[in-house]
Design goal:
The chain is α+β, with helices and mostly antiparallel strands. It is 34% helix and 24% strand.
């Protein structure tokens, strides 16, 4: 039966995208020069150092330059912002195939089917944050069972400069939404002064207003956005579709003359590539990289090099190490102003079994992964492997140790052979030859023994276990253990009950048949 997963959305809001299309925010790299983005003569985005100096959004260009004469100003590039949004959406495809672009520089991801794959919400959020850092972008996230609610939580996190909320249950969603400021709604921006004038500060206050009057004064869009946030109206999303071929480009903010300094920008391209490979179910075997130099009259031909892999790969760590090795060995003849990465050759990704038990004939790595998983879940002493001992006594020879212990010697070569020889000697007298004796010995021994032999009753002069047992094999006599002062003197038989179940039982030869103590014992069961 198909189980319907409850919906869960993660919103990734990029509050500094206007500025970070020009100056990437790399983790661990401090801002060197205060920067600002201008639009129509006013500041539309500002860096942290410039904000600390008194520059704020909405300030005129002259005022910003008066406060900070060395401020670096950029004219807003909406086209490049859209390209960076698409690049981010492509990189996020490695976490879910359902990724959509939303307004206000936000990306929505349906993660309802991704939680178990990536280890839960917190682990998935950390991985998405790491991906956005690899792209050089500042990101705030919000999680909710409704896409519009997650979008609001991500915007709130950007304003409060803290980790966004994650609300899993729809029952708690209304309570969290009621406390949000009304200014978070995109449709309410033109009516904020009116709403604040009537003491409407939160979404709860907004919902209590008469809907006809609110629609007349603020428009129908604010009602639609409010209903969508509370899950009372369905939203339609335009899913981001990865291109059939991968070719990405990143412009460098400055001319870079050291090849190893290009690694951060190459990694941002690699992060996009991983999302593309994941959604296409491909592995890459040939990557073409171009390092672009001066353009125009003093144009310099680009530096070209290829990464050809012996085996197709899609793991980030391996590809990043290859990039690092090639870039550290590269000697640049001119400064680099842009990097272009293009995939030349791919192959279908080899599917890996995610089942608990590997398929028969699978790889050794799959079996080792299973053992490691079982030990981690059940404990070291709960997962055992057979380690037979060279002893004629069955309960002594049948030894088990933890799988985490080092393998001793090959069982078939050093342990099983003496035991089998002893079994063959005991059966050749009643069989046609040694080969027949070997088969008889194997068939007379069960695969599994009881942890402790079970005493049997005697009824009608026969051993009894749920029904009378009939002996169907000759006796196999075992006398051993005198050197350990644990001597055993037993006659083993194969017995069958009324339901044709075969058992391995023995009779103690040292017991007195007329005593009250048990003489017959059940020691094993045949499969």
């Amino acid at each position: 039966m198909l189980v319907q997963r409850p919906p869960l959305w993660l919103a990734v809001h990029l509050p500094m995208l206007q500025l970070e299309v020009f100056v990437k925010h790399w983790p661990g790299v401090e801002e060197s020069i205060p920067s600002a983005v201008l639009q129509q003569g006013r500041v539309s985005a500002v860096s942290q150092s410039a904000r600390q100096a008194g520059v704020y959004t909405g300030m005129r260009t002259g005022g910003a330059q008066m406060l900070l004469p060395d401020i670096r100003c950029f004219q807003r590039d909406t086209q490049q912002e859209q390209l960076d949004l698409l690049a981010s959406a492509t990189a996020l495809l490695q976490y879910s195939p359902q990724v959509a672009l939303a307004e206000d520089d936000t990306i929505l991801i349906d993660i309802s089917a991704s939680l178990s794959l990536f280890g839960g919400i917190r682990a998935l959020r950390k991985r998405i944050q790491a991906t956005m850092q690899a792209l050089g972008l500042t990101a705030n996230t919000g999680i909710a069972p409704v896409a519009r609610a997650a979008w609001l939580f991500a915007r709130l996190a950007a304003q409060k400069k803290r980790v966004g909320k994650h609300v899993l249950g729809s029952k708690k969603l209304d309570r969290h939404l009621d406390r949000l400021p009304v200014g978070l709604l995109a449709a309410a921006q033109d009516s904020l002064e009116l709403l604040q004038g009537i003491a409407c500060h939160s979404l709860q206050d907004l919902r209590q207003l008469p809907r006809p009057g609110l629609q007349r004064r603020c428009g129908k869009a604010i009602l639609h956005e409010l209903d969508a946030a509370y899950g009372e109206q369905t939203e339609l999303h335009q899913w981001h579709v990865a291109p059939p071929e991968f070719k990405a480009r990143v412009e460098l903010p400055d001319r870079i003359e050291q090849a190893d300094a290009l690694l951060m920008y190459a990694r941002s391209l690699l992060t996009q590539l991983l999302g593309w490979l994941t959604v296409q179910h491909l592995a890459v075997s040939h990557i073409h990289l171009e390092l672009l130099h001066e353009r125009g009259r003093q144009a310099i031909p680009p530096t070209l090099f290829d990464l050809k892999l012996g085996q197709a790969c899609w793991q980030e760590a391996h590809l990043l190490s290859l990039f690092k090795e090639r870039l550290t060995q590269l000697k640049l003849h001119s400064a680099v102003i842009a990097i272009v990465l293009e995939v030349k050759q791919t192959s279908p990704r080899e599917l890996q079994s995610e089942a608990l038990f590997p398929e028969p004939g699978g790889k050794a790595e799959d079996h080792q992964r299973l053992l490691e998983l079982l030990v981690a879940r059940l404990g070291e002493n709960a997962v055992l492997k057979a380690q037979p001992q060279a002893d004629h006594r069955p309960d002594v020879a049948n030894a088990w140790v933890s799988v985490t212990k080092s393998v001793i010697k090959s069982v078939t070569k050093s342990v099983t052979k003496p035991v089998m020889k002893a079994a063959i000697k005991k059966t050749t007298a009643s069989n046609a030859g040694p080969v027949a004796g070997m088969h008889a010995a194997v068939n007379l021994r069960p695969d599994w023994l009881l942890p402790k032999a079970l005493p049997l009753e005697i009824r009608n002069h026969r051993p009894y276990y749920e029904s009378e047992l009939s002996l169907i094999s000759p006796a196999e006599r075992i006398e051993a253990g005198w050197w350990h002062e644990q001597i055993q003197a037993r006659d083993y038989f194969v017995a069958i009950d009324a339901k044709a179940v075969r058992y391995w039982i023995y009779r103690e030869r040292a017991m007195d048949p007329d005593s009250d103590h048990a003489v017959w014992f059940l020691h094993g069961v045949f499969g």
